[in-house]
Each structure stands twice: as C-alpha cells, then as structure tokens.
Design goal:
Layout (H helix, E strand, L loop, with lengths): L17 H8 L2 H9 L11 H7 L3 H7 L3
C-alpha cells in the first residue's frame, strides 16, 4: 500500500496511526515497513512513542530515537 501512495501516518477515527497500532499489537515486521515508509513515531494520539512507553517497549523507544 505504501508503494502505491498510502499515507504512512493516516490517522484513524480514534486519533491513532498505523504505526501506533502495530506497536500495540507487537507487529515487528509492520513497524519496520511503516518506519521505512516514512511513518512518524510521534504522530497521532496516542502516538507510537506513547504506546511503546505505555507497554514498556524500550527496544522500540530506542528504534524511534527517544528515551
């Protein structure tokens, strides 16, 4: 979908991005594809960063470049 122009940071009706959803579900491959496609970990509410913090996913916080 990204290759065909889908927005990596498209917000859903709950204010979340696909990246935040992938973090919530623990979908490592999807997280990588979205990041490679330009997804912003800080986009949305809660953001992927917020979601990673909420669930103690320190490896993802490092991947996102935050503490």
């Amino acid at each position: 979908l990204l290759e065909r122009g889908a927005e990596a940071d498209r917000i859903n009706d709950r204010g979340q991005t696909p990246l935040a959803g992938a973090v919530f579900k623990g979908e490592a491959a999807v997280i990588r594809v979205l990041l490679d496609g330009g997804a912003d970990p800080a986009a949305g509410t809660p953001s992927a960063v917020d979601t990673a913090r909420m669930f103690g996913k320190t490896e993802l916080l490092e991947l996102f470049g935050v503490r």
